[in-house]
Design brief:
The chain is mostly helical. 69% of the residues lie in helices and 0% in strands. It has a single domain, classed as Heme Oxygenase, Chain A. The chain contains eleven helices and no strands. The longest helix is centred in the middle third of the chain and has 29 residues. The structure holds protoporphyrin IX containing FE. Protoporphyrin IX containing FE binds next to helix 1, helix 2 and helix 7.
């Protein structure tokens, strides 16, 4: 099945992923502690309200499934471990977050956050090396589910296919694209020119 839900999500967001990956450039050498802390603060400002919005669209039967995937506490712990204590700007759900109204759009949006744990397997050790962090102290968000990353990803994929009706695949894909785009805007607001250049490079 070439056009099943997960391949559609992957194929139809591939350009968004490349664009965000290039703009964040987290695998660079010379990553600075201040820049890393600022990025974690931006992530937390997005992820915390996003988790509330998406959690509100989960049926009761998926509450535990969703709650064990919440990542805002990891960001809070990382920032505390790095000694960051600044006030965080939170995304406005109406203006800065994707439109998530039902289980299909919730799973499309969740695809982006769950998929990011796959890249995290490369990012977490790189960040630890760059900033000389002890394991799990300051890079817990990118370390995500640690050794459970593969099984959590497979469980996410199976659940997504089971709960999103085929007639709503377009809605799921739309929400995934909106999630990548709103994350890019939120995380890269001050460097939108660089982001645009990265996007042009990614699709060329
Ligand atoms: C520098 C930053 C990033 C790097 C280096 C990176 C790298 C990767 C890699 C290597 C994979 C494939 C892993 C595998 O197939 O085993 C992947 C998958 C994925 N990443 Fe990223 N990533 C980055 C940032 C992000 C961010 C910020 C998001 C979204 C918040 C994201 C969302 C995804 C998704 C949704 C997938 C799954 C694609 C699929 O198989 O359907 N990534 N990433």
């Amino acid at each position: 099945m070439r056009h099943d839900l997960l391949s559609r999500l992957k194929n139809e967001t591939a350009a968004c992923h490349a664009r965000l990956e290039n703009a964040l450039d987290l695998m660079r050498d010379g990553l600075q502690r201040d820049a890393y802390i600022a990025l974690l603060e931006r992530f937390l400002g997005y992820v915390a309200p996003w988790e509330d919005a998406v959690g509100a669209c989960m049926p009761a039967s998926l509450r535990a499934f969703f709650d064990e995937r919440r990542k805002a506490p990891l960001l809070v712990a990382d920032l505390a471990a790095l000694g960051a204590g600044r006030a965080i700007a939170h995304a406005d759900p109406l203006r800065d977050l994707p439109r998530v109204t039902d289980v299909a759009s919730a799973f499309g949006s969740l695809y982006v956050m769950e998929g990011s744990t796959l890249g995290g397997r490369f990012i977490a050790p790189h960040v630890a090396r760059q900033l000389d962090l002890a394991p799990g102290v300051g890079n817990a968000y990118f370390d995500g589910y640690g050794p459970r990353t593969g099984s959590m990803w497979n469980a996410f994929r199976e659940t997504a296919v089971a709960v999103v009706p085929q007639a709503s695949y377009d809605d799921a894909v739309r929400a995934a694209i909106e999630t990548f785009e709103s994350l890019q805007t939120w995380l890269c607001a001050e460097s939108s020119d660089e982001c645009a250049q990265a996007a042009a490079g990614a699709v060329a």
